[in-house]
Amino acid sequence: MKNTVNSFREAREQGKRLAMLTAYDYSTAKLEDEAGINGILVGDSLGNVVLGYEDTISVTMEDMIHHAAAVARGAKDALVVADMPFMSYQASVYDAVVNAGRLMKEGRANAVKLEGGVEVGPQIKAITAAGIPVMGHIGLTPQSINAFGGFKVQGKSEAAARKLLEDAQAVEEAGAFAVVLECVPEKLAQMVTSKSGIPTIGIGAGAGCDGQILVYQDMLGMFSDYTPKFVKRFAQVGDTMRRAFQDYILEVQEGSYPSREHTFQMADEVLEKLY
Ligand code: KIV
């Protein structure tokens, strides 16, 4: 069954937890979709795990459109959400609407996600008014990493916790259909979830959220530059890939690959005419 913004709302009402993962290409999106994932985020974590940048700041609209379109082709039932990259929405409401529209028209996403709380309320309002569903993202917002001064858990002091509650309310009032809570203490995330009228999707925010999201390379053990505390390795696919690459190199070097079963043949009579 196709996941939609309505099925996300219904899942929360029925107490059914939502599972989301990131994907950046057709094959991975297809596998996640076949597994029954509710939503696929084409995250700007693309910058870290696919493009090899040290943060998400350099990711462009063209990068996001290119990868969102590939994911959209692989996802049949999952809701595809595309991240709005750094500076595609911060400078003006006009930029926000135009760039959200591009992610839908050219990237074929079903919704967009953008980072921030109270300060991006006007952008969320204008994008939703244009008929584009918006997922909010509060707590640790990696595009503001230079302002945060590093990857830190957010909302630990009273002032920071109040700010997070205000941000959650602002994002909901502006019209977001769901909100990501990143790196937030479990009890604060639970409080946001209980006060919220829209599904909360946690990453490093404990089990009290309405859903969870992880970067797929993290949960498959394919990315080892750094591993946040909240990541659980559900498989060691990185090790399996490395071993397969080594086996391939060895077989090529010793000449055992390709064998007859992987080789095309032709009639000897035709071949003889060539001599
Ligand atoms: O870009 C991303 O992958 C994200 C998730 C970590 C929520 O924003």
Explain what you see.
43% of the residues lie in helices and 13% in strands. It has 275 residues and is α/β, with parallel strands linked by helices. Strands 1-2-3-4-5-6-7-8 form an eight-stranded parallel barrel, surrounded by seven helices. α5 packs across α6 and α6 (121-129) packs parallel to α8 (158-174). The N and C termini lie far apart (60 Å). The structure holds 3-methyl-2-oxobutanoic acid (KIV). 3-methyl-2-oxobutanoic acid is lined by residues 22, 41, 43-45, 83, 137, 180, 182, 203, 213, 215.
Tally of DSSP helical segments: 12
**What is the CA-based Rg, rounded?**
22 Å
Helices and strands: which structural class?
alpha/beta
DSSP strand content: 5-15%
Q: How many separate structural domains?
A: 2
What assembly state would you assign to the polypeptide chains in this entry? Answer: single chain
CATH superfamily of the largest domain: Phosphoenolpyruvate-binding domains
Principal-axes shape call: elongated
The number of strands is 8
Short description:
With 275 residues, the protein is an alpha/beta fold. Helix content is 43%, strand content 13%.
Topology readout:
Elements: H1 5-13, E1 18-22, H2 26-35, E2 39-42, H3 46-49, H4 61-74, E3 79-83, H5 93-105, E4 111-113, H6 121-129, E5 134-139, H7 145-148, H8 158-174, E6 178-182, H9 186-195, E7 200-203, E8 211-214, H10 216-219, H11 237-254, H12 268-272
Parallel strand pairs: 1-2, 1-8, 2-3, 3-4, 4-5, 5-6, 6-7, 7-8
Helix pairs in contact: 2-4, 5-6, 6-8, 8-9
The structure holds 3-methyl-2-oxobutanoic acid.
